[in-house]
Amino acid sequence: MKALTFTEFGAASVLQYITVADPIVTAETVLVKTTYIGLNYADIYRRQGTYHLADHTPYIDGYEGIGVIVEVGSAVTDYAIGDRVMFVDVPLANAELVAVPVANVIRVPDLLSDQFAASIGLQGLTADFLAHDLAQNQPGDRVLIHGISGGVGQILSQMLTADGCQVYGVASTPAKQRLALDAGAEKVFLRHDDWAKDYHDYFATVFDGVGKTLPLSLQLTATRGRIVFYGMAGGNPPKVDPLALMQGSKSLMTGDLWDFLIDAPSRQKRAARLFGYVQRQQITLNVPTIFPLAEGAQAHEALEQGKVAGKILLQP
Ligand SMILES: NC(=O)c1ccc[n+]([C@@H]2O[C@H](COP(=O)([O-])OP(=O)(O)OC[C@H]3O[C@@H](n4cnc5c(N)ncnc54)[C@H](OP(=O)(O)O)[C@@H]3O)[C@@H](O)[C@H]2O)c1
């Protein structure tokens, strides 16, 4: 099979599209022929050597995709050849074929196209656990999302709006501000404007996937409110003083999606909850940008340079 690989860490130029051995199908796996593979920030960190990466020679990036089952392991009873399935936490996904443990398989409802399902998978399940496992906001709560027009941000914003929250956000450009307002946000601040001084101690929850904004998030969070820290798209976060948190009875919560997708039932339950928002037309997405898997290096560069609004998909 063909795969997007690398043997050393570094810039996008280390990526090579080459022929490698097909994956081995064990008793409890299914072999998925991928139609689309989702590209995520974590793939950049892995290529740079700063994030957990499956041991493999050569390295193969990628953890989420959608496709059709072409082979089933001897112990698999719930799935058959021809089933359309997706996965969000399976390594070695930047390839034409991926061996997916049966517990990691997620069935795709008919109403979702391959492109839509591939675009919402990992970022949608992330938004779901941030909103429903960590923050647990009540209708009427005021919440703020940094990077509201990013992949997770867009989905989280629509999900919380549907949950009855008043959603505020921060974006870098007027075009991204417009995108978030059109998706239902109440107010969207421009990152470089001087807006924050009027919103100290204001939000029940601040969702921070940017990282270096943590001190600002602490100021914006209301007494007894919480900061949900889940990523560092803007660089490593500065240290947070626990005393500063305690003085306003503020809490810092964190989480990694993989600690919330621990078995087949937890994946299916969360996926069903996410797809429910789509079925009720409470979440829409802009059209994804598609690169051939062979041009994965250009896709990585586009993501790193913030050139693309919305999801980037790789097509084998
Ligand atoms: N904890 C988990 O389980 C988990 C799971 C998935 C993703 N994540 C993390 O969540 C974050 C967002 O992921 P994503 O897939 O949504 O990425 P994305 O689509 O690329 O969005 C990144 C967002 O970060 C904002 N941003 C980037 N640099 C910034 C800076 N210097 N200052 C302020 N904002 C900045 C961008 O804002 P603009 O668009 O306005 O420029 C963009 O909206 C990443 O850190 C990712 O690693 C965590």
From TrEMBL:
Against InterPro entries, the record matches this protein to: ADH-like_C, ADH-like_N, ER, GroES-like_sf, NAD(P)-bd_dom_sf, QOR-like
Q: Name one GO molecular function term.
A: mRNA 3'-UTR AU-rich region binding
Q: What are the record keywords, sorted?
A: NADP, Oxidoreductase
Do you know which Gene3D superfamilies this protein is assigned to?
Answer: Medium-chain alcohol dehydrogenases, catalytic domain, NAD(P)-binding Rossmann-like Domain
Pfam families, sorted: ADH_N, ADH_zinc_N
- Single GO cellular component annotation? cytosol
Tell me if Mitochondrion is a UniProt keyword of this record.
Answer: no
- Domain Enoyl reductase (ER) stretches: 10-314
Task: Give the matching SMART domains.
Answer: PKS_ER
The family database entries (PANTHER family) matched by this protein are listed as: QUINONE OXIDOREDUCTASE PIG3-RELATED, QUINONE OXIDOREDUCTASE-RELATED
Q: Does the keyword Oxidoreductase apply?
A: yes
Matching SUPFAM superfamilies, A to Z?
GroES-like (SSF50129), NAD(P)-binding Rossmann-fold domains (SSF51735)
Q: What is this protein called?
A: Oxidoreductase [Lactobacillus plantarum JDM1]
